[in-house]
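User: My collaborator sent over this chain with a note saying "see what the structure looks like." That's all I know about it. Can you take a look?
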Amino acid sequence: MKIFIVGLGLIGASYAEGLTLSGHTVYAYNRNPEITKLAIQEGIIHSNSSMDQLSQSDVVILALYPKHNIEFINAHRHLLKKGQLITDVSGTKSWMMKELETLLPQGVTYTSTHPMAGKETSGYHAKDSRIFKRANYIICKGSRSAATDESILRTIANDLHFGKITVVDAKTHDELIAFTSQLTHVLAVALMHADTFKETKEATGDSFRDLTRIAKINEIMWSELFLENKQALIDKINHFKEELDHVKSMIESDDKETLQTYLKIAKEKRKTFDVH
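Assistant: Without extra context I'll predict from the sequence alone. Here is the result:
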């Protein structure tokens, strides 16, 4: 396939690397033209990566922040052609998908995706297509999805060596991500802010290090993701606070039996995640 990637940050550049290695013809646009030149020099995108190729590509992958994806389509929709598939790799869906669905010209299809992969570092120089190996991949269908979109996106996911592929709607996606991704980042950051000991670095074990690893966060991107998914994230924070209060009450009342049962249920549920 001919694939045009908009944005060569961590995910966009890693996609370009992986899809080129898989035999696709990959073009790209980046707001910093020096990064585009570097990507051409390193061979992860085609040497003729001009905006003209946007009209010639089978698939366009938007790899900017959600609001910038919308701005790009609004500015360049006249270059899109009938029969193209537009997709994106953004971490929130509902608001962005509605905006894009109204902007896209007739005959252009749009189905969103979310590669559940990343690194603690960001930007083009952090690229590594191996981050997708066995990672989860979510496909979000909307009002502009075509019947053929899913098979094309599954091909891309397989060529990048993703693992489990799940298909949901935008609302379900945002609720899932609020819980499995955004809430966990909130917890990691809050744990770091709750630290009051000067000896913490010398007293940590694997549990604290594992829980707080993702506090090494891209504050610009994650602030936007939190606010774009505001209500779903607030709901999950409130639900989690209820669980914390429940644990607190069992400890306060010395309810050992109930506490053990609570811990055992969590342990058995977590074990099911490791079954492939």
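A starting point for your reply to your collaborator: Residues 170-194 form the longest helix (25 residues).
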